[in-house]
Amino acid sequence: MSHALEARGISRSFGGIHAVVDVDLRLAKGEIRAVIGPNGAGKTTLVGLLAGSLKADNGEIHLAQRNATRLPVHERVKLGLGRTFQITSLFGTLSVFENIAIAVQSYQGHSFRFWRPANRKSALIERVHELARDMGLEQDLHTPAETLSHGKHRLLELAMALAAYPSILLLDEPAAGLGIEETQNLIAILDHLKQDAAILLVEHDMDVVFSVADEVTVMVDGAIIATGSPDDIRSNQRAQQAYLGESGPDHA
Amino acid sequence: MTKRGWWFAGVMVLGALLLPFWAEYAREPFVLDVIIRLMILAIAASSLNLILGYSGMVSLGHAVFIGIGAYAVGIPAYYDLNNGWLQLAVALGVSGLFGLLTGLICLRTRGAYFIMITLAFAQMMYFIFVSIEEYGGDDGLVIYARSEMGLGVDLNDNNQLYFLVLICLLAVMILVHRLTRSDFGQVIKSIKINEVRMQALGYSTFRYRLVCYVISAMICGLAGWLLGNFTGFISPEMMDWTRSGELIAMVLLGGAATVVGPLLGASIFIGVETLLPEVTLYWHLYLGILLIIVAKFGRGGLLGWWTQWLRGTRS
Amino acid sequence: MDGALIMIQVLNGLQLGVLLFLLAAGLTLVFGIMDFINLAHGAFYMLGAFICATLALWLDSFLLAVLLAVPITFGIGVVVELGIARQLYQADHLEQILATFGLILIADTLVQMIWGPEGLTFALPEILNGQVRLFRDVDFPVYRILIISVGLLVALALYLVVSHTRIGMLIRAGASNRRMVEALGVDIRMLFTLVFAAGAAMAGLAGLMIAPITEASIGMGNEILIVAFVVIVIGGIGSVQGAFFGAILVGLIDTLGRSFLDDLLGLFLSHQAAETSAPAISAMLIYILMAVILTFRPKGLFGPRTS
Ligand SMILES: Nc1ncnc2c1ncn2[C@@H]1O[C@H](COP(=O)(O)OP(=O)(O)OP(=O)(O)O)[C@@H](O)[C@H]1O
Ligand SMILES: [Mg+2]
In terms of CATH architecture, what is C11-126+133-296? Predict the structure, then answer.
């Protein structure tokens, strides 16, 4: 079976800290793979390596059957990759509409137009509304992004990542800080999304992990220590010790 | 723009159109000269505003493009090539090319490094022209003939030059207005806010910043072309880094990332430069103090109310 | 090209190098630690020159003038830091540029008000006026040797302070991680004042040493400041070592380029072509050097590596 994303032996260190060590990872369409692990395990670094915002020290990354190891971030997006950030990364002073529109504009590809006013094309407006509707942001289209609630920030992040119909999605703790209802909503969205995409889900919230993940990978100190189905992981000694058992998941 | 803004713009344009007639009537040709210079600097400041205000690239070497534009008049004229269209093409072409080549290097860097590298490249050009004795070196080059435009236009007539500069200024302001509100403008403004996010959305931010930089360079080259014609003299001093500093001051004095800001800033600057020396020999002192005040309180402070008023109350 | 000339030009390059270092050291530290772009740093260079010239004329002693002018420039540095610079550390680079550009105008005008628009010259004492024989037939001015020695001594002293003392440790820590220094409970503001004023004093020293050769003139710091910027960009912002190697490199390349490039080009081009192109190309050399270095190391030779 062909994989949407494949990482072989990728590593990255910062000075003396080995943030990601020799990680192998495969991800296919229709699959949600959760990556869990304690704080500082290297999950965000892994996402950065896959997305291209960080350069790997060693290893290879393939996206959509292409060697993407040396491709910059924006080229990887062209191969179908989309991501959200653990620390919300938006255009704070712009409206929700403009935030989503700039994402849609990237996909619809008309950014070298210099004269006609932006955000007037019907295809763009339609798509923005569609994404806002899917994320329940329709009421907020004209508020500045920075004034939204935390939960809505997370949803806006997701809306922007989805604008380009990504076939590979890297989500860094999308549920962090969401309320119960918002979390349920997110779970439904993820379930729906996986039909068309391969999803890597970094998450601390075990309810989310165990209700949507097909596979779970446990990272500790930059390395993968266990990987398997949610049931396997639940009963896996090492995983429990390293993460689930001792201190319990961190919901912060 | 708001209704009030349009009214204001209309009155200004009307006033600008009538000014030469008034100047002739009142026998104040000097006023016309001051306003021509003001408008040329406003064009240059507008071009800087495009990269500095709208896309957050702080260049401290922008005056180099004024110099290039001016030498594009002076050097051909030195060889008796007075065709204005040719000179204009050279001014825009060489400015754009220099912007492209230096941009390829400058734009790889960020923040303070970018500031210093733009500064260094401008200074490089400065020293190159200082060292070329054929074109006057340090002493500069006198341009004996203004550009010949054909079409019945005679730039030796100051009134006609005035109208040409006015048309260029209006065209540039309209261009900046449209550009910054276009798809492309949306991209550069967003890059300024959050470049990492833009990359994650699939934008090759380098390319957009480079294009913006080159456009800005060419507009500034246009200002240089006009300035060369106006002053009839060019010297490396025109691209000295303190000239670039003055352009930054104009943009910030008037209000960065606004269409009228640079014009406003150039007006204040020229106003200070023209009026203060009448009062005191040491007028630079007061200009310096003004700049420090603007730096400390300027963002929407000293002149913010003015731009606020032009834009109407923010919706 | 004969050996003697090359040797003399190498020494001249070294002299430019140490002067650049004295300017760049303060610039790079202030920049690295306080994140403050000070376009007005060249003003201290100018002030050092004017103050020393005045004192030398009054006291009729160059040595005394130097010994007084350096602490005075230090004091001015303290005043400027407390009065103005300190307020700007938190501002963004754009505001810093505008404000320090304003400071240049103020400094230049004040100098003009005090000393008038003309430059100020003064003669060196007799002992410094001679030449020394370095080599069989190579003579070199004593005073220039002195400049080089003083520059190198200051560089050595600065290196020792930065790498072997507690203050130096704080400075290094401050350059890489400001918060950590604050977490150590150090009065960071004192440290800032000290670093700023020391930078001012070094710039003043450079200015006063060059003054007897050129003269003290208004705006003399503004041009060399840009070259000092090139130096710290090449060396890596915040790195004293980088400033040193960058300064020497730039000093040598600039000086040697200006003196020998036409001969060098003459090997490939016609005499005429070499004569005309050499000045322009040698004016570009250090900027080309900077561009090349930045292409491979966007944060300079000694700067932090990028991800
Ligand atoms: N840019 C960086 N520079 C230096 N060290 C870094 C950098 N980014 C991450 N690290 C270090 O690498 C390790 C892994 O960090 P990472 O953010 O990937 O962990 P994480 O698993 O995402 O943690 P969390 O659950 O808290 O988000 C940590 O020790 C962190 O301090
Ligand atoms: Mg993380």
Answer: Orthogonal Bundle (1.10)
